[in-house]
Amino acid sequence: MEKALKNGTLNSEKLCGFLLFGSVLFSMILSNMPFGGHYQAFWQTTIGGFSILHIINDGLMTLFFLMIGLELEREIYVGELKRFRNAMLPFWAAIGGMFVPALIYFATTDNTLFSNDIGIPIATDIAFAVGLLSLLGNRVPTALKIFLVALSVIDDLGAILIIAFFYAGTVYWLPLMLALLIFGVLLVLNRTNVLNLTPYIIGGLLMWVLMLKSGIHPTLTGVLLAFAVPFRAKDVAQCPSAKMMSTLSKPVAFIVLPLFALANTAITISSTSFSDLFMPSAIGAFLGLVVGKPIGILLFSLMAVRFGVALKPKALHWSHIAGVGFISGIGFTMSIFITLLSFDVHKWVEVTKLAVLIASVVSGVVGYAWLRLKLKPKAE
User: Fold this and answer.
1) Is the pTM higher than 0.85?
2) Which residues does 166 contact at the CB level (< 8 Å), separation at least 6?
């Protein structure tokens, strides 16, 4: 895992964090220029019956979910999640980092139209989080990087499961069953040691089309495909899963996620925007990320170690875990994604996205300042 932190995917995520920040800033500036309306209208341009925004969110983002699935698969087979008790600390931290924000969001929005959308503040944007942590340079112990990455992958999986179970529209069972049948065939190919990626790619494309027609969000195809693609722990570098991850890492980091950021942060800030931030969904999203994340992660980590269900590495101090808790409040990609699935009213979407952006900035600044204070530079 330490080697992985220095190479490949995590390096892409580090650079992607900076590119995402620039994309957000660029998009919001353009949206609030005199010609901002034309910029926003561009993302609604229709191609083949689908808007560019729809193509990005339902099509290209499938590759992002595929990357999450491939990362999780790798962690389970050869990473920190392979060792049960080692995996338990980020696992319980992730559970706390989902449960407490969801609870805060529900308490804030109870008896309103927004109370069912508890998924908005539960996930961490791994690209932004890793990018921010990298700014601390050699102050950061490897154990802290491992903890953050494992936690982020687990709570992204939690967000994916919530999308699957709570954000599906009307379900059409025939295409769904056909999609699952194809998934079953791919699993059989995996078990019979078919290592050529071609049938998996073709099967994934067919699954995506069927998922789209079924009413289940088609991006979930990415996660299913990830676990169908063979992973071979004896030859990690040459296994199909690693090859696919290597191929996808740069396009996802430098094309898919920046496009998502550009398209989904085209927000006009008006004189009423900040007063609108007192809308229940905005308050719930902000408090869930800024307050709920650090409390949930630290509290559940303490309880897991106290009751003996998890081990804390010696190099990892409780102040470090608290700092990761703050950084984990950077919800950005997944929080905005779930916001788009939650609301049909344009104003609700825009205000909640703005709250997520503000919460992510606050969480990032506080987390960086906290860890810079608590972490000592290593001697050269």
Assistant:
1) no
2) 116, 119
